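#random but structural
TW: two for the price of one
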Amino acid sequence: MNGMVRDSLAPTALAATLVMALLAITQPLLVLPESRLVITLSSIATSLTLAAIWLVVRRFPPPTRLAHPIAAAMALLGYLNTGVYFAELHDPRHTTTLMLIVIAAGSVLLSRRWLAAHLGGALAIFAAAAWSAPTDPMWAHFGVAIAFAMVIAALLHEVRLRTLQRLRASLEELTHELAERGRAEQALRASETRFRQIFEHAPVMMHSIDREARIVAVNDKWIAETGYTRDDVIGRAVTAVLTPESAETVVRETLPRFWREGAIQDVAVRLVRRDGSSFDVLLDAARVEMQDGTTSSLTVLRNESVRKRAEAERERLRHQLFEARKLESLGLLAGGIAHDFNNLLGAILGNAHLTLEALEADHPERPAIAEIQIAAERGALLTRQLLSYAGRAPAERVPVDLSEQSREVAELLRRVLPPEVVLRFDLADSLPAVEVDPGQFQQVVMNLLRNAADAVGPAGGEILVRTSLARLERPELAHLVVGAGLEPGVYVRLDISDDGCGMDPETRERLFDPFYTSKGSGHGLGLPVALGVVRAHGGGIALESEPGVGTCFRVYLPASSRAAEPRRDDDSLVQRGSGRVLIADDEDAVRRVARRILERQGYTVTEATDGGAAIECVREAETPFAAALLDLRMPGGGVETARALRELDPEIPILLQSGFDADDATGRVGVDGPTAFLAKPYSPRAIGEALRALLARSERKPGRDR
């Protein structure tokens, strides 16, 4: 309130100045000559003083705490001027000035305490004037007038005070309302900012369109996925970023249903990127009523290409898992029969070889024995093919030149190809070696070439054999038929392609299934065997084929840091050996034929039926054995027996034998000493060369029985 009093000082001082100036001019005309000078000087002095107060408070507003004292001072000036009137004139009619001052000051002073003091001063002046002329009856009249003026002043003060209080309450309420509105607007702006940030930086594509299907907003993910800028699309029709087919569907069906129902879900459309490529999306949209009364959409778009790629990847992994389990099941089945079957074949082959060596060239039974040998060799080949497909065939890997190996096999097959089939070579020189079992790798090349020859058919065509160096990264490895789990790196590649009939998708899907064939003849193991061998050697196969165009098989094998070994002459005769060897095998027929073979080659043989018997033979021997031949699957275990023999005789050479997967048996022996592996069934030449090579690696001199 003091602030309001302070603001009223200047206009009140100005009004009082004008009143006192008017009195200074008019009063001398109305009063007696003897009092005229004093009254005029008093009015002029009061007017000038009030004018000075008006100038000061107008230019230098006083502190609020001085507002009431200054107003009281101005009233006091009026009281002093009125006192001069009373002193000079002794006439109650001149109390007009006092009444004006009481009313004016009462309208200015807002404090009841200051108003009471002001009115008290006015009454004191009136009482003094009345006491100076108590006999004049006019004092009663002017007493009523002054009382009336005081009542008016009090009423004006109270009305103004209450009005100002209500105004103050209204101002406070308005201030509070404005503050609340400001906070609400600030919260709204913060909410809008937060929503815009969420919209802009959402990890999914989002856009908004208006009723005319114009794009009004897009987020950062939308921009990143499509390649447009905001200037490119804001204000354009949404159909401008859709394929023509999708745009037609959206205009005809999707938009009318959306504006009618207010929401849509899982609508498939195709978006066009800025570079012209397109991709599938699923969109969900909701209708939004804006504050300005307009209607727009909030649309979320999910890139279906990512989902489809993920589904394709899951399907590929599921297929790989199925293939792995199928191979594992077949491997278990093949392994279950291979050991016993190869033992039987070994006995048959060994005895057939020995019998043929013993018979004269013109003996009448020699052809029958030769047929037995051929049949047994075919059975052994079939077993090896099953194990190769399962990736569990015994292998002796050596570094070889892939170009040389491929040319040799292809040249052998050229002799049986029809003259209409043209065989061409594009073989790279100086390729890194690959570590493979030469016999197994020959099966790969042979089977792929036979498949190409069958695809070309009697009409003739061309088969191309090409070798090259390739670096494979994970994207290329992921699309191999086999080998998706390989590590990126340098591989040597063999391509065998033809311009034959090609394959349809169904044939390609089942191409590597065992016993599946699209030809009228054949056992359906050629390509499955090739796949198993390549997988067992840490490689991969890629396939490209289209009906009527042709087929290309690409075989990838890891490049080796070792140099290719020179070829051995397999036609050399097996040299005779000497020394005492131990044969441990639970199959009597296999053990006996091995003994007969080795004894004919000059060795002295001791037999053991299982691992325990072999350990006892070595423990009780007075002189060390030259070597020990151990079956991996005999009772007591070949690897376990080999470890026990090495504890008894750390330098004894050990030749492990099995008709099943070697499973890195030589490495699992786990101790130093010469160790080798020989796959069953074997020929007399194979066992003789294997034993001779093993003894050559050992520094032990052959010992003999006493």
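TW: number two ↓
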Amino acid sequence: MSDTPATSDPHGSVVTDPGQVGAPVAESEASGYPAPPDDVGAPAVAELAADGQAQPAALPQTPAPVSEVSEPVPAVPAEAVLPSPGPRHRGRRIGPFVASFVLGLVVVLTVAGAGLAAWDSGYEARVLPGVHVGRLDLSGLDRAGAAAALRAAFPYDQGQLVLRTPGGDLKVPFSAFGRRLDADALADAALASGRDSVLSARLLSQLGQAIHGVTLAPRVVIDQLALARAVRAALAPLTTSPVDATISMTSTGSVTTPAREGTTVDATPVVAAALAAVGSADAPSEVVVPVPVAPAPARVSDADVATAASLAELAVGPVRVAFGKRTWTIRAATVRTWLGFGTTPNGSIRPTVDTTKIPASLKGVAKAVLKPAKSAVFLRAKSGSIVGVAASSDGTKLDVAATSQRIAAAVIWRTFGGVARPVNVATAPLPPKLTTEQAKLKAPVLTLLGTWTTWFPINDHNYFGANIWIPAQIVNGTLLAPGRTFDWWGAIGDVSPSRGFGPGGVIRGNHTDPTGAMGGGMCSSSTTLFNAALRAGLQMGARGNHRYYINRYPLGLDATVWKMGGAVQDMSFTNDTGHSLLILGIRTRSGGTGYVTYQIWGVPDGRKVSISGPMVSNVIPATTSTEYVTTLPHGVREQTEYPSNQMDVAVSRVVKGKDGRILHAEVWRSHYVLWNGLIQVGM
């Protein structure tokens, strides 16, 4: 390596110059002029002879003549350079001495100038003697010859840069980045050597050059950008990307792939080292630069995925979902299909849960949780006019997204050592299509004060439901003004086939006649309305119980109605609330079972109703007997009577106003006769 500073050429190439072009090899310490060699004993320019005559300096011997024509140097008279003889005062002799010295110097310079001119003319456009580049003597060569000789002597473009890597050598020829000798610049420097513009300096320079010689250092030119590109291109394949270990979940467990380490090379220091090495003029034809290759580890290691796989196994297990007292279990195999893996902010791999897969396992839960919303209902009188609004109510539905998040959190909790517990579902309100606020813009909001529903078998005992449902249709929409009394027969009117009624069951004497009375079975409808009014806290009127107890009715609170000749059993109640009441009759059916419902709507006045349970006494158990008859086919059995115990039943009710004052307090007493069962068998 050389400490010689580098200078840049106009093309961005580096030129190394170990010294000043044309500088003499050695100088005299005393004068700064070129020191003569040891075998030269006379002064280099001139000396005074013994007789006081100036003698011209001897010119150095060279291979080539100084000039083709030599002219004699004119002799200088001794009087011109020597003082006159005879004693003089010291001060008076200085002036003539100086004049003589100057005259002698002029003569010397004149002689030297003439000789220099002859010398230069002999080497016009050629290198002066004594100029070397390294060991190559360029004396007498013209510029082209000097450049050619330099290129031949210093083949710096021949060779290669070897990048030594752990995997083998990578070779880049010098020609790839234009490494060469700066022959043209050296040839110019050689031609300029000894040709100073100042005569005195030129004289001394050429004299020193002829005696001692001048050695120019060879200089190297390099295209730095090309070198950097070539090195980086050669090193590029050495950089390989690492491969992360992977993990995924299948129906049978986790599956992993191993990690693979990559490699990386920092090309910047390699480029710098290569530039320094090949930029030296004494660099060998094969320059070796070591290339360090560093490992590039994978971000996800085999250990990372092994840990994640272990955590995933902790997450797999059945999940119990709870709603109220009900629970559902989701199988572990299903839970496994939810699992995946993700990277946490700190870079670790942990199991994750895909919440979009959970809802498929919650269909049964969603069905159980669902409570449909009830839209507001416009309540209409018989005329069809809207008299009130039945308030809406929100339903309930499963909040699938929130429940899925809860389940996912429970599964992940297991990976932290948490104990599995039932996950309580999240619910959300289900709004109605028509809200109370929307509906009450058309009518006031009414409250359901009392309601009751009775079921019955649809058969010929009730004219296949007609004798029960037609009264509900007739009563439906009845608007009962404050202080007015509702009575059954006054509301129902004529019971005839023209209005849709038909024959139905009736109790006659000691047996039941299934189709013995027009409109038979309508007691199911009257009993239902009686119980709705009873629970609305209204003032109750006429009421009578059946002869024997029918178990489809509340014990002690049945209300039979009938007409027989001039005798009438009615059912009635009075509106004592101070606001109009709306009575609705509703008919529904499910297969062979019918239902009748009555609702009483009104403005609540704060009254509270309390009804006791039935108090039963004087019980005589009923029995069932078998009777063989010829009215049935042989072996056919038919139960014509059902057993009902004889008993006395009392039910009490207390109605209090909002101030706690008792509005109504009464007891309904019922006596049911003994009614034995009968099974007829065909003979």
